[in-house]
């Protein structure tokens, strides 16, 4: 049974189809595609990429393969994942802000980090952190309620809230004093350094591009800032014999189960940067898109509000009673996947779906394309949360909001709990509408971001 057949259910009304960027011409020139990639990779894909199983191409002498079939994706990300590494361009963009943390580490370094960190992100370990999520969300709701008579920028509000949650769950202290500086770092990097330039794509990783020089200067300032946060948390201390109270405790106490080694201070700093940035930015963006979709679709918004009114929202156990709210989060991440592109370079030759792959060929698995592929989804561009409430879930390799396989996002459970509870609190407290009618377009810059921050009107329920 196909995914489309599994979702063959009656729909009482025409579903919302949110605005999306126009698709590129399939015959776009290399330099035209380069310009589009520079602006937003999402706008560089043509109609073929939404229809065909595998799209082959050439890019500066290398073969490229866009994979849109679950079997081919499973082969690359699970069955033979050790033959595929991050592309040089991906490393250039991520390493200055994430260092050698879990997200971009490879080989033995990645295996060591993964097995050392895994105990800190189990559902049991996440449970004590939920109080931090709820406290920060309740404070955000209270501030918004006090300002509910004027239009609000919910994107900024969700960024502040997610950052506060990240700070409290990481360090057990709020981000009142450091939040503005951290947001400035994130905005500076996203606006100036996160978009790959022509030379980033062309030069070998060992040859620094002009952007790399600026990225190195940024990294020096950024690592000093993260070190300051760690020093402040250490100064607060931890009561002898007390259980871990935050992620910093859990990661500091983590030991490699095979060697007994702890993280060095530099390694711990890279993990802190990875968890704060990957956690707060992706969750804030997902919550913004969920609120935007619900503002465009008042009937679905009322379904969420009705569910929230019949459930208490005070802990991770409440997720089971928030099935429709969770489905809205799932469908939001289908339409606006936090990571819109997974790019890999072949270390050695391989065969994918009968096609020969050479060393250094580029494999592209784009959740943006995969989640909107016309062979895999019924009404792929429509907002239909109920598709995630059927007895037959989507194919594991057709829905990749957190990746899949050995390198699946270690914080997926944490993020889903946070996003579901936060959305429930927001819609339980407010009716959300858009002030203007201009569409908000997604762009791909590390994450799937909006091209602008629209204003919302919020009315207390």
UniProtKB/TrEMBL annotation:
Domain of life assignment: Bacteria
Cofactor(s) the protein requires to work: heme
InterPro entries listed in its UniProt record: Cyt_P450, Cyt_P450_CS, Cyt_P450_E_grp-I, Cyt_P450_sf, Cytochrome_P450_monoxygenase
Pfam families per the UniProt record, alphabetical: p450 (PF00067)
Binding site for heme: 409
GO molecular-function terms, A-Z: heme binding; iron ion binding; monooxygenase activity; oxidoreductase activity, acting on paired donors, with incorporation or reduction of molecular oxygen
Keyword vocabulary terms for this entry: Heme, Iron, Metal-binding, Monooxygenase, Oxidoreductase
PROSITE patterns in alphabetical order: CYTOCHROME_P450
Family, per entry: Belongs to the cytochrome P450 family.
Name of the molecule in the record: Cytochrome P450
